Amino acid sequence: MFDSLVRIIALWLSRLGVSPDTASQITGISDFLMVLLLCVILYYISKFVIIRILKKIALRTESNWDDALLEHRVFQRMAFLVPGILIYQAIPVTLDEFPGVIAATLKLTNIYIIVIFLLIINSFLNAVYAMYQKSEFALYHPIKGYIQIGKIVVFIVVFLLILSLLFNQSPIYMLTGLGAFSAVLLLIFKDPILGFVGGIQLSANDMVRQGDWISMPKYGADGTVLEISLTTVKVQNFDNTISTLPTYSLVSESFQNYRGMKDSGVRRMKRSISIDMSSVKFCSQEMLDKFRRITILQEYIDRTEAELENYNKENAIDNSVFVNGRRQTNIGVFRAYLEEYLAHHQMVDNSSDLLVRQLQPNSSGIPIEIYAFTLETAFIRYEKVQSDIFDHILAIIPQFDLRVFQSPTGEDLRRSNAVYFESKDAPA
Questions:
Q1: How far is 133 from 126, CA to CA, in rounded Å?
Q2: Residue 123: inside a domain
Q3: Whole-number Å distance between alpha carbons of 194 and 349
Q4: Residue 253 and residue 179 share a domain
């Protein structure tokens, strides 16, 4: 067919008055141009016919692999191989009149085929990663770093093959030549190498997973891990900003992972309230009678009073003086109330540690620390539960004749001055 077309073109050129030498050169490359035209036709047949057939097959199958390969254009890029292979096979036949051109054309065709294979492998690795992300293992063992390492290796191999074709040298020779630049390569690929090592350690030791809540103040990161790649870890903070951390920093530096808190189903509440020391006093009988009317304190008051009374009797304590013997204090009863209140609270975990204690007194009063675990771990719901508990505590403190310590404000000073001048102006 090609020979017939060449003869027709030669006859047509001679009728146009083209010289025999020029006509011979034109007809010499006409069959190659026809091959190029045929390649374009076959490419579009592959792209619009075969790919559509594959799409219909993929929609009917239950496997997700064919869908992933189509989505990441693996088959579309394979269609580019058709013209490359056809041209490579046709070059020796169609360009036999130009021996000097054959070698250069074959070299360019080889480079084209190698680049297409590179794109196919890259798309295939993307499809593998997409399929892996849908599995339950992706949460515990991220593989994006390994996929990126694989892409880097493929790119290096392709680069060496192209260089070997351009310089007519063996790929092994080119590889040994790169060995001389090993120090430069180590410097260039320092971050990927550290990231690869860090990724292996993170995965092997299960230090962090996608979806974990981590905190790393040095990098301004406090949020959910979105992605663990070869060189970076992306963290979405609670203000929806994205912090990017070097992967190896999670191995070489300290960070806080809240996964254990989520897995346990409880979250620690540790906060203190400062009590004015001048409001602390012994409980009078009237105060004890008032405290007994608090349901959750009645048993504690009766039990403690009986215990103290027995102690004072056994040791012949003179109760007429408050300093003698043992007595209940309003702050002690308040601590007992907090313990009972938290123990009966529906959002506090009774199986975990629960503690109400005094901290070291300081210039801000006596800190009363609440140490307990709530059944809510989500940030917003946890803060709501904690706020509700401390709202109640702040409101109940005056019922125990205690005062919350608060530094004087401008309003306090204004009232104090007003009282002072009123008392000064009052008649004697």
A1: 11
A2: yes
A3: 43
A4: no
Q: Are 390 and 271 in contact (CB under 8 A)?
A: yes
Q: Where are the alpha helices (DSSP H) in 283-407?
A: 285-292, 295-314, 330-343, 379-396
Q: Evaluate whether 304 touches 310 at the Cβ level (below 8 Å).
A: no
Other CB atoms within 10 A of residue 427 CB: 3
The verdict on 230 and 154 lying in the same domain is: no
**Contact 262/379 with Cβ under 8 angstroms?**
no
Which domain, by its residues, includes 160? 2-203
Burial class (CB in 10 A: 0-12, 13-18, 19+), 248: buried
* DSSP structure string for 400-417: GT--B-----HHHHHHHH
Q: Which class for 214: exposed (0-12), middle (13-18), buried (19 or more C-beta within 10 A)? A: buried
Torsion 9-12-14-16 (CA) sign: negative
- Other Cβ atoms less than 10 A from the Cβ of 19: the count is 10
Instruction: Give 235's DSSP letter.
Output: E
Tokens of residue 66, six digits? 């064919």
pLDDT tens track for 160-206:
888 888 877 777 766 666 665 666 666 667 777 777 777 777 777 77
Q: Are 272 and 328 in a shared domain? A: yes
> Is the pTM above the cut of 0.90?
no
Residues 274 and 228 in one domain: no
